[in-house]
Write a structure and sequence with these properties.
The chain is mainly β. The chain contains no helices and 11 strands.
Amino acid sequence: VQLVESGGGLVQPGGSLRLSCAASGFTFSSYPMSWYRQAPGKERELVASIASAGGRANYADSVKGRFTISRDDAKNTVYLEMNTLKPEDTAVYYCKTRYMFMDHWGKGTLVTVSS
């Protein structure tokens, strides 16, 4: 299993970014996918998750209405569209899946929200 995140960077408060996570090594369409984040000095937290086939999504209260998770099973990719970004959204963002009874993580992509 390989998960590779991309799309992070520096953005001003109120701005937008779209993160991507390219997956390989498993039948992507059959598995739920999640985005987590870890801010400096804080624990890793769940941001959003999306089910397989049907794509029901769930969000942390802190990002509801601002972030949207989606997936493209033809491209084996999960996305996180982030709007109205705030300084407190600054973190390393990771995608994750659970396959063969194990959690698999990407290496993360850094999002910095600052003026």
